[in-house]
Amino acid sequence: MNFRTATKHDVPAIVDMLSHDKLGKLREHLPGPVPAAYFEAFDKIAQDPNQELMVIEDDAKSIVGTFQITFIPYLTYQGGMRAQLEAVRVRDDVRGRGLGTQVVAWAIKRAKARNAHLLQLTTDKRRPEAIRFYEKMGFIASHEGMKLHF
Q: How far is the C-alpha of 98 from the C-alpha of 21, rounded, in Å?
C-alpha cells in the first residue's frame, strides 16, 4: 500500500468512497458527475498548509482508502499543536485487511512529525464498530463532542 497526498484527479474516487459509506449516503449527493463544489473544496484544502488530504493506493495504483489530517495550532498546551483525523474511509472490497490500522499508525507518525501533542478524532455514535476499532487503537473517549449544524 502506498500513502500519498491526494490530487485533484483523485476527487471522484474520494467522493465515491464518502458517498458509499452508510452515513455518507445521507450527506453526499451524486446524481451524475462530481459537482464542482467538491473540486472547490479540494482547492481550499490543497492551499492550506495545515490540511493534508491523503489517499491510499494498492499495488495496481487503485485508490482503496482516504483520510484527512488537520493541524490546529492553539494557545493552550503552551502554544501547542493538535492533529485532527477525519473522513477515514476504506473501500468496501478491501475492508478487514488491516488498512484502517495502517491509516491510524501513519496518522500518528505524521502528527508526531509535525510536533502535535495529540491526535484526536470524532466518529458518529451510530458507528459502534468504528468506536470499538479506535478504542483498540488506544483512543479514549475523554470528551463529549457537540455539533451545531446550519
A: 18
Q: Is the pLDDT of residue 41 over 90?
A: yes
User: Is there a domain that residue 27 lies in?
Assistant: no
Which pTM was predicted? 0.89
Helix (H) or strand (E) run with residue 4 in it? strand 2-5
Domain that holds residue 83: 2-6+49-136
Question: Beta-strand (E) ranges in 28-145?
Answer: 51-57, 63-73, 81-90, 118-121
- The rounded distance, in Å, linking the Cα atoms of 112 and 119 is 9
Report pLDDT digits (tens) over 87-120: 999 988 888 889 999 999 999 999 999 999 999 9
| Per-residue cell: 97 | 485487511
